Please model this.
Amino acid sequence: MPVLWALLTQQFGMALILFAIAGFSDGLDGFLAKHYHWESRLGSILDPLADKLLLVASFAALAWLTLLPMWLLWLVLARDIMIIIGAISYHYLIGSYKLLPLWSSKINTTLQILLVLLVILQQQWLPDLQATVTIGVWLVVASVLNSGTEYIVVWGLKAWQQIKN
Model:
């Protein structure tokens, strides 16, 4: 993964360019899939999985370099693992479902992306952004906790309703 390599070798300008290319190509891919009806069940699973892999790898690299706290990486991973275990459990115990991200999850992903970009910008060009990075860390913490809690409540209620019916 080129972004991960660029981060770990502390080539932050290159990492920023590669991260931007990945984001642009992901957006273009999504647009084309919707516009030309190229959507598939497999694509609906693999696309967010690839996005999540890039984001978690970026968090891991920045935590390894001590540019983000390691506990933040573990918190982000714990939420993602909880969602995966919940989805698998729901599928095998309750039944199939349509995988739709909650708005809190979209906000969480956006804040995580912005934090990665902010840390990269801080390292490359703007060293005085530490206070902003700290605020970004705590916004990500709040969004991870909010999103994780919302997934538990929403999918717990859906499971409860399915079991009752």
Summary: The two ends are 46 Å apart (CA to CA). The chain has six helices and no strands.
